[in-house]
Specification:
The complex is a heterodimer of chains A (221) and B (254). Chain A has one domain (10-89, 104-216): 3 helical TM bundles of succinate and fumarate reductases. Helix content of chain A is 72%, strand content 0%. Chain A contains seven helices and no strands. Chain A has helices spanning 10-35, 45-56, 58-87, 109-137, 143-150, 154-181, 190-216. The longest helix of chain A is centred in the N-terminal third of the chain and has 30 residues, at 58-87. Chain A is globular, with a radius of gyration of 20 Å. The relative contact order of chain B is 0.13. Chain B has nine helices and seven strands, in the order E-E-H-E-E-E-E-E-H-H-H-H-H-H-H-H. Chain B is an alpha+beta fold and 254 residues long. The chains are: A mainly alpha (221), B alpha+beta (254). Chains A and B meet through helix 1, helix 3 and helix 6 of A and helix 7, helix 8 and helix 9 of B.
Chain lengths: 221, 254
């Protein structure tokens, strides 16, 4: 019998990565769904109602804590796995031809994840922090007007688009890989799963990208 | 051996022993036949080096017909070179062009220390097998074909997993130096068959534990191993091992 602790084994760590990844994917569905309310183009009435609900509902508050725990766990496991993986090959090859056998983004999840984290810090400073401050100080918060102001700057829109591109590639590999890691791979449904993953990643990211673009261009008023 | 007309520049990793610092050295080979295997081309080079009184290049090889898994060269950034589904001994010089420069390196992995030049010590794989890649009971002589009924799909999957020759190309090509494809094939070939069922939980825990102890990396699902495997071992085996490992941990009483 192995004396290895499940959560310290390479397979256990990967399982944690997969499960937290799938959880973060479900969060994205909620996030993109709520934000898509701006496309009602009703001056932010619907969007602000949803934002207000999200800021005060007890269940959402609990899930917010779970979400941050999920992101943190995903990051820590990624870091620990990367360190282990680097130790597995201390002397690098002089020549490698990764393009011959794998997609560049599948080999760059760490870089994409780090870019995402940098984007998240900016994103949290833009939206999460002001919303929290408003809730705690009891100030009325017009998230829609706040968003319009933020997306009025070109460099901000550029940062958001770069962040969303990183997210898209991270998802393109992460979505199908999470299923493989939790042990689901089968000739019958894996091709369908891969297609679903690609459609999901691209759709979610196009929707996210449309938000700063349409607000910046003044299409959403 | 007929003489050909290919002239090549080879950049080959030379390293005295496990602890020495290695470096790529440049060699010229002339008159190579396109019908030679890659290893035969190395034989020509080594004869040339011996004639010149130089140290020949150490490399692993045995059966030279693609079934033993000994040959192990990392050629132009890919294990066993550019052709899909073959080992280095089955790679022919017609896959290269006259005047090409070819870079040849050993498998690079903490778990596979370099013995000399291109030869690496793959006994880490043997220790993974010794940890659980067996059936403890004597299953006797070959039974009549239908004595023990086995689902055709399971028999096929077990046979495909058992095609693994333990060459280590999966470890060599993986950006994480992970042995998941090898270990999962060895877990699968037994877990799928009735004789392997009884010990399947202890087996997967023990083999994965040994895999981690040897210093192999973890799987990023890039799929490189599956593409580079000379025997076409599928990523489905890794998913199966993940399932087996999770199940075994849940059931484990220790």
């Amino acid at each position: 019998m192995s004396k290895e602790n499940f959560l310290q084994s390479s397979l256990g760590r990967k399982l944690v990565m997969g499960i937290t990844g799938l959880f973060l994917i479900t969060f994205l569905i909620v996030h993109v769904g709520c934000n898509a309310c701006i496309f009602a183009n009703d001056g932010g009435v619907l969007f602000n109602q949803v934002a207000d609900f999200m800021a005060h509902n007890f269940f959402i508050r609990v899930m917010e804590v779970v979400l941050f725990a999920g992101i943190f766990t995903h990051m820590i496991q990624a870091l620990l796995l990367t360190l282990k993986n680097q130790k597995a090959r201390p002397v690098k090859y002089a020549v490698t031809n990764g393009a011959a056998n794998s997609k560049w983004y599948s080999r760059s999840m760490g870089v994409l994840g780090s870019l995402l984290l940098m984007f998240f810090v900016i994103h949290w400073a833009h939206f999460w922090v002001p919303t929290k401050v408003a809730v705690f100080t009891g100030q009325p918060e017009n998230t829609f007007e706040h968003m319009k102001e933020i997306f009025s700057k070109e460099y901000v829109v550029t940062i958001y688009l770069l962040g969303i591109i990183s997210l898209c590639y991270h998802l393109l590999h992460g979505f199908p890989s999470a299923f493989q890691t939790v042990g689901l791979n089968n000739k019958k449904y894996t091709p369908l799963l891969k297609k679903t993953g690609a459609i999901f990643s691209i759709t979610v990211c196009l929707l996210f990208a449309a938000m700063p673009i349409t607000v910046y261009l003044g299409i959403i008023k | 051996m007929s003489h050909g007309n290919m002239n090549l520049t080879l950049k080959v990793w030379k390293q005295k022993n496990k602890d020495a610092k290695g470096a790529l050295e440049t060699y010229q080979v002339k008159g190579i036949s396109p019908d030679m295997s890659f290893l035969e081309m190395f034989d020509v080079l080594n004869e040339q080096l011996i004639t010149e009184g130089k140290d020949p290049i150490a490399f692993d090889h045995d059966c030279r017909e693609g079934i033993c898994g000994m040959c192990s060269m990392f050629i132009n950034g890919r294990p066993h070179g550019p052709v899909k589904g073959v080992t280095t001994c089955q790679l022919h010089m017609r896959s290269f062009k006259d005047g090409d420069t070819i870079v040849v390196e050993p498998w690079r992995s903490t778990a596979f220390p370099i013995v000399k030049d291109l030869a690496v010590d793959r006994s880490a794989f043997d220790r993974v097998i010794a940890a659980g890649g067996f059936v403890s009971v004597n299953t006797g002589n070959a039974k009549d074909a239908n004595n023990i009924l086995i689902n055709k799909d399971d028999a096929d999957d077990a046979f495909n997993a058992a095609a693994c020759i333990g060459c280590g190309a999966c470890v060599a090509t993986c950006k994480n130096g992970s042995a998941m494809l090898f270990v999962s094939a060895k877990v699968s070939q037994l877990a799928l068959l009735p004789q392997g069922q009884i010990e399947k939980e202890a087996r997967v825990l023990s083999m994965v534990g040994q895999m981690d102890d040897e210093g192999f990396g973890a799987c990023s699902v890039t799929g490189a191993c599956e593409i580079e495997c000379p025997k076409g071992i599928s990523l489905e085996n890794i998913a199966r091992m993940n399932r087996e490992f999770l199940g075994a941990n849940i059931k484990s009483k220790h």
